[in-house]
Amino acid sequence: MSRSVVLRAGAYSIKAGRRTVAVCGTLLLTGLGLGLLGLCLGGGSWTSPGDVLAALAGQGDSVVVVREWRLPRILAALVFGAALGLGGAVFQSLTRNPLGSPDIVGLDAGAYTGALFAITVLGGGAAELAASSIAGGLLAAAAVYVLSLGSGLGGLRLIVVGIAVNAMLTALNSWIVLRADMDVAIAGTGWSAGSLNGVDWHEVALPFAVVAAFVLLLAALSAGMRQTALGDEQALASGVHLNRLRLLLVLAGIGCTATVTAVAGPIVFIALAAPQIGRLLSGAAGVTPAPAALTGAVLLLAADLAAQVLLAPVALPVGVVTTVIGGCYLIGLLAGRTRRDAG
Prior knowledge:
The chain is mainly alpha-helical and about 350 residues long. The protein is built from 13 helices and 2 strands.
């Protein structure tokens, strides 16, 4: 019996393993279940599922609470988590290293620098924030690439250089916050933890559109990504233009993570952990975008729900919870590597 299935949508088709399809379906259902729970539980107060469904249909007394307050936050967690998972999958695939994540190699810190520049110099509008965040991430990526020339995208040197660039940009961001006016400094400090508190439709409409555009770009590049996973020589033999592909992949990966940073601040470790967790769940040989995106969506939504209830009625920044998740992930990664070396 075939272990693969072919999924078709009009003129497009994709071949995927049965386990990957099953895992993606399970993650999708898990995300929907957590979304319903968030609509019932948001803000520390409980609304029955029946009242939630009625409110979504525009009926009952909870319409404003459910549709205007809770629903944007739930969708933001799902979309932004998927974007972070995709960004992590892109860079881990390019570097062929599980540590090749935007928040490890300085790209998130660069996007945050761009966002701080937009706030302190440009006035901080939604368009300025998005553009400055992407520009900051691109400049950080360029710096890491130039400083690691000679080692290739998969080299350990790139990871080490990225960690160093991340540390320097973090120091620069702290200096910008300290030099800013009090109101900007308070907002920047709170934002640096990564938070979905107070997110509304006005703040997420443009970022959702931007993320959708980068997702479409990644979908168009998915065939080339699968070829490069087999090695550069095989990709070149199949007609893939590696330099152009890598440039577009870097742009899409930075765009996904920088867009999230522009709205919610740097939410760490989702981009690091989601691709590898998705790979382990699906049993794939390498990092694949769909499980990474769905895992990121589930992780961020679960983390945000935990942030809302741990100290209710006070809502923690979701970045506090994702940092704990990331710490546990890194400890597990190190423990697994130690066991393999000892064996």
